[in-house]
Amino acid sequence: MPNDDPFLPRTATPAAARPAPRWAKKTPPKPKAAVRPATTTWRKSLAPHDPHQHAHKIAETVIDAWHHSHGGSSIDVPLGTVAALALLRQPEQTGNSLADWIMNRQPPELPQLFKEIYLGHWLNRPDLIDRAVRLHDWVWNPDPDPHQLRAVHTVTHRALNQGLLDLTGHDAPYLRAETDVLSPLLTGLRHKSDKKWRGEYHTPPSVTDLMARILVDRDVAGPDKAIREPAIGSGTMFRSVAQRLRDLGLNPHDYHWYGNDIDALAASCAAVNTIIWDLGPHCFIGCADSIALEDGGYAQTLAEAKASFEQRDRSLDTAHSIVAARRAFRLVDQLTSQETAA
């Protein structure tokens, strides 16, 4: 589908056949003599057959780790930690090497790691990473709290040990989109009174999956259609629709997605999730009051996305200019040294 928006990425990923989830692959039991002891703890227990239950177990583990480590009242930090880890890819054939490497990092090293993860995705989708600023703003603190970093370190270990990358580390988008790992964590970290005041109750994935199966078929889901959600939360409805499209042999990249939420932290989670689930270059996440705005905030979100792409291009141009200038200075220094030696 042609892309008329000059600030959007122009690459599209062709629809791929739906792979079987890892938990559906049955392997014959090994004899006891052939069983090797695990070198790390994070893969000792197999992921549950239900990816949604697995996501809830990860959330419970992370919440317990954060509170017992006395990480503080800012729920952005543990949420941003898990979101950064969920943006990583660890293909099955590589084993657990990536998780092992991360768990060998010291607490002061983790903010730099998370910066690099978010910056890597910012190069491709600056609008979504800018929208997710609540999740990564803390990693840019030049003077981080050592106690908080230790809590982040504990959360990182617990999330990876609980098998986070078994849900989000796949190469195949279908497998990464089997569940929403951020929704149960966001709702679990928030105090009950806070959720009641906000009126924020995320629709269960079983309900969104059922709605997608009922509402989306080949006749309805023709290419160049728009899918909108005025109260997107962390994006669970988008996940269900994208999986339904893939089940029908259709590519989510061929559709226009617009999600909006009045809660900035929920919108941040939705922005990260759209990258994890690979909804494509025509997906935009806004943060505004859909009821108060005539078009639900769509025009505002597009304008903000365009500004993010333009800022990225200016930053890259500046970086290229700096690199070119440094190369020129080095060349001048070399020529001067040669003339002096002569």
Structural class determined from secondary elements: mainly alpha
Oligomeric assembly: single chain
Give the termini separation.
Answer: 62 Å
Percent of residues in β-strands: under 5%
Q: Tell me the series of helices and strands, N- to C-terminal.
A: HHHHHHHHHHHHEHEHEH
The geometry reads as globular
Number of strands: 3
Number of separate domains: 1
> Which stretches are poorly predicted, pLDDT < 50 over at least 5 residues?
1-18, 21-26, 28-48
The value of Rg in angstroms is 22 Å
Main pleated-sheet profile: 3 strands, parallel
Task: Provide structural commentary.
The chain is mainly alpha-helical and 342 residues long. It has one domain (39-297). It has 15 helices and three strands. The protein has helices at residues 51-68, 76-86, 97-103, 110-122, 126-131, 133-136, 146-161, 164-168, 173-176, 183-189, 192-198, 205-215, 236-247, 264-276, 298-341; strands at residues 226-229, 256-260, 283-286. α1 packs parallel to α10 (183-189) and α2 crosses α7 (146-161). The radius of gyration is 22 Å and the shape is globular. The protein starts with 50 loop residues before the first helix and ends with a helix. Mean pLDDT is 84; it is low at 1-18, 21-26 and 28-48.
